[in-house]
Amino acid sequence: MSEPGTSEQEPSVQGDSPPGRTDEDAGEGTQSSHRMLGFSDALLSIIATVMILPVTHTEISPEQQFDRSMQRLLATRIAVYLMTFLIVTGAWAAHTRLFQVVGKIDDTLALLNLACMMTITFLPYTFSLMVTFPNVALGIFLFCVCVITIGVVQALIVGYAFYFPHLLSPQIQCSAHRALCRRQVLRIILRGPVLCLLAAVFSLFFFPASYLLMASVVFLPYVSKAASWCKDRLMGRTEPTAHPVELITLDLHEPLSKERVEAFSDGVYAIVATLLILDICADSVPDPKAVASDFGGSLLAALGARGPRFLAYFGSFATVGLLWFTHHSLFLHVRKATGAMGLLNALSLAFVGGLPLAYQQTSAFARQPRDELERVRLSCAIIFLASIFQVAIWTAALLREAETLRPAVRFGGPEHTFMLAKLALYPCTSLLAFAATCLLSRFSTFIFHLTQIAVPCGFLLLRLLLRLALAGLRGLRGLRGLARPQRGPLGGADANADMQSPLLPAPC
Amino acid sequence: MSEPGTSEQEPSVQGDSPPGRTDEDAGEGTQSSHRMLGFSDALLSIIATVMILPVTHTEISPEQQFDRSMQRLLATRIAVYLMTFLIVTGAWAAHTRLFQVVGKIDDTLALLNLACMMTITFLPYTFSLMVTFPNVALGIFLFCVCVITIGVVQALIVGYAFYFPHLLSPQIQCSAHRALCRRQVLRIILRGPVLCLLAAVFSLFFFPASYLLMASVVFLPYVSKAASWCKDRLMGRTEPTAHPVELITLDLHEPLSKERVEAFSDGVYAIVATLLILDICADSVPDPKAVASDFGGSLLAALGARGPRFLAYFGSFATVGLLWFTHHSLFLHVRKATGAMGLLNALSLAFVGGLPLAYQQTSAFARQPRDELERVRLSCAIIFLASIFQVAIWTAALLREAETLRPAVRFGGPEHTFMLAKLALYPCTSLLAFAATCLLSRFSTFIFHLTQIAVPCGFLLLRLLLRLALAGLRGLRGLRGLARPQRGPLGGADANADMQSPLLPAPC
Fold first, then answer.
1. pLDDT of A393 over the 90 cut
2. From the CA of B450, how many Å to the nearest CA of chain A?
3. Who among A15, A47, A133 is closest to B274 (CB)?
4. What are phi and psi of B456, to 5 degrees?
């Protein structure tokens, strides 16, 4: 029993947190914010993604045609899901930037953060309400009140952190312009809520103005940045205006914390994978009475009838898992995530969140064979969109590769081609599958399942396949080179050719 | 465009991963396992918890009495949920210990881990099947096949890691007994699957043996530990037998990685909080036609009718959030999580997972007023069990406080009483609420909601309340001390009294 206050050398114990990340500074009651932010990321990612469930639960009874009105209903619900996803992701991004201000937390900040989480969880509901009742003032009003409440709680967090400066991040603590910093942070945090306050007021007598004001919340950062860029150009300034406090903006180009982007993405992938098994567990345990009456008591037959669902489940889980795998591989090489990468990541995740819909569609093959073609195409489209935005993240990173990427994967680096191959696998195969269903529409299901099995094998053999492809390419270039007069020894010409074509990196 | 292979000094960039945790060792293609393990924890925690949904979706129509058969159905489903939760948590714990062997991962290990995840996600389904059809061989067989497949994939992971020793954790890499270590790890991993293989064989002709074998998978580690303890005692050995390779066991007392326990717990809390909002979003957006017909077009009236659901939601979210908060506070002071703490944590989380059930019950107050009392009591019981197991974790930690806890919270430490107060708040208030409903059964709903509002305020004011309580206690002791002859100055006697009663720590 150690006496209170005695400092002692504690022997290092297996399982201790890594050095440099002490959880508690007991004297001040402050704590590392790491776990709380991880919890917030998990919560927000799940909130964003579960809004796909109303879409998957859109009852399409077997007698109903997959006709225009059904397509329209589905399209509306998908649009609502996408917008809700992006709204929650926006709230998450704001939360990320807010906690760049805060370095450590204490109990009060942890509780305030919980209040912030609670208000953010209400965003999807109020948004759905607003969309269902677009002409009713109350819908708009409630959504705006939700946004205002979030802003107020976040302002409280900022105010509290600045009131106890030891809670601030080291940069801001040591800054000479702390009051200026606080004003700027509050201005950014309250910008959206103030616009929503105006929108709430306008909703009482003039709807279109409300919707315009709410849309401006989204576009204002971009508009103001474009405006300042134009102003700089007009005044002949080639460098952006120096600002004493540039620590926090909602600028598209400012970095997001890479750890938080990864945590948020992992949450989305995890909940999507789980939604798939949930559908299985909920519906696929046969009822004993049904087994006795319909299948003569044979459980095997009852399960066999559900075979396509399990097949679809394995294929979909493999898809989600491999999309996570490519995301993981990509972010291993990312040093810093810019705002543009964050936005493209959100779009990619939004379509990953649509995968349960693809699963549900493909698992209904046996029941509704005539719609097979549309279902396969929908699934291919969702997978294509989810994966092509990953390629877009990669492209955005390449545009500023000195900052964002590690040397190995930059253009011309040894791992560049392999990374490109990994990222390109899903877009190419889903496009191929889509094209194949256009040509061989009768075998669409078979093609789809074949693709779902082929892709994992493709990943496992990717390095081998890539070497073969590159060897083949070199062989072709060698043949072309033989046709022209040589300038030097074959090895020298090849080496020159290699250095001139960064697409052919050193053998991987 | 850097040339391949050139090493250069990269300026430190804001947003970089913290030093000491480089993501990729490009030369060997190995990566830190941190993110993959976080993803696995998120996935498994969600899998474990969503099995509460079939319970909450047990349709209790308003006309039906909450009678014995309904209670029995509910109880059966709750039992299945609890067992599934503990099974998945067991699989997660095995995964944790498996990856204590692996230090770094590469692409192949990441893909193998995805395969492991996919097989684990099938555990709840096969278990539900087995429980629904207890006398059908196929049910037992499929469950055992699932466990065997998990074992095989994990054995592949171990084999792969030992085949490429640079992937192993540093302790094992440098160990002289690597082959012995591998044999022991494989023996532990395959112990359960081998027993399930036997169970699968027995299921074809003799069920009880199958169930017995499967139960032994759970109890075998405890039985073997008890047996070796008895053997040591009989042979007069007071120290446990020294074993050259004690790096990995499934011993109850071996530590789990604290980070993974926190990540798994965060996943459970996050999904539970989300399940609550999901119920709201799914059912509580009024249908425009219904609003027009039932409420005369007034959205406000339609929402007002759902008022109790929102109230119940806020209360339940506050409960989940504050239970997370106490868990977070507790683990801040934990240095090492023992196996016993891990088991108690799993039990606490299992009951946290039952909170959506409590929410669903309490939100039905308005519709089914006659069952209010049972519903409130059920909710109080669930909250009590969830929080009392947190106290149990704390107690288990105190039993080995030199290893498990930081000095500040050990018995007699300055933060000890405050931590105890935090942990005791929920058990006490839920017990009080339960007792109050026995005395004032007519006001049970009011009592319940009052409690849900009072507790957050209690947390915010806890330090203040504790100081008042301790001052009160000291005042009482002072009064008693005045009645006895004093031994020294009042301050000295007080100081002595304080040191003799570690329950009165230094003012917090």
1. yes
2. 18
3. A47
4. -55, -40
Beta bridge partners of B472: none
* Residue A36 with chain B: CB contacts under 8 Å: 328
Beta pairing, strands B24-25 & B30-32: antiparallel
Note which residues in 314-343 of chain B have CB less than 8 A from chain A. 314, 317-318, 321-322, 324-325, 328-329, 331-333, 335-337
Q: Over pLDDT 90: what percentage of chain A?
A: 23
% of chain B beyond a pLDDT of 90: 23
Residue A430 φ then ψ, to 5°:
-70, -35
- In terms of Cα–Cα distance, which of A348, A336, A171 is closest to A260? A336
Please list, in sequence order, all residues whose beta carbon lies within 8 angstroms of the beta carbon of residue B340, skipping any fewer than 6 positions away: B252, B253, B396
- Helices (runs of H) and strands (runs of E) counted in chain B: 21, 3
A and B: number of Cβ contacts within 8 A: 271
Residue B10 has pLDDT above 50, yes or no: no
| Residue B64 burial class via C-beta count within 10 angstroms: exposed 0-12, middle 13-18, buried 19 and up | exposed
**Complex prediction ipTM:** 0.82
Query: What 3 state SS string does B369-430 have?
Result: HHHHHHHHHHHHHHHHHHHHHHHHHHHHHHHCHHHHECHHHCCCCCCHHHHHHHHHHHHHHH
Residue B252 contacts A, CB cutoff 8 Å = no
Q: Comparing A327 with A284, which gets the higher pLDDT?
A: A327
How many helices, marked H, and strands, marked E, lie in chain A?
21, 3
Given an 8 Å threshold on Cβ–Cβ distance, is A42 in contact with B47?
no
pLDDT at A171: 79
| Dist. CA A457–CA A455, nearest whole Å | 5
Contact across the interface for A13 and B403, Cβ inside 8 Å: yes
- Collect all residues of chain B within an 8 Å Cβ-Cβ radius of residue A97: none
CA distance to A287, B130, B187, B408, per residue, from A297 (Å): 11, 15, 39, 63
